[in-house]
Specification:
Strand order of the largest sheet: 1-3-2
Order of helices and strands: HEHHEEH
Radius of gyration: 15 Å
Number of helices: 4
Helix content: 40-55%
Length: 98
């Protein structure tokens, strides 16, 4: 099997890569936190989180804190497995090209 078979298209955009990186080391992150950490617009973040949610790599929870809506995200078990495979494949590719 080729190394590039484990490079996952769902993570080929820097924003999705950033979202998953944050969620791999944190139990969850809310919309505002992700937006600030990744320096992206509301629309960009919304579209990329939706793409990751569609393939079931992240879970979205909507709630109210006081009267304010709050959306928080967490990596699913499947998302964690697939992201780890993706990172491992990238590392193997880098090592092979040295």
């Amino acid at each position: 099997m080729s190394i590039i078979n484990n490079i996952n298209k769902a993570f080929d955009h820097r924003i999705r890569l950033g979202i998953m990186s944050v969620l791999m080391v944190n139990e969850f992150a809310d919309f505002k936190t992700l937006k600030e950490l990744l320096s992206v617009t509301d629309g960009n973040l919304a579209s990329h989180t939706k793409a990751l949610e569609k393939v079931e790599y992240i879970k979205v929870e909507k709630q109210f804190i006081g009267r304010k809506p709050n959306t928080r995200y967490s990596a699913t078990p499947l998302g964690k497995i697939e992201f780890k495979k993706h990172i491992d494949a990238l590392e193997q590719l880098i090592r092979k090209s040295e």
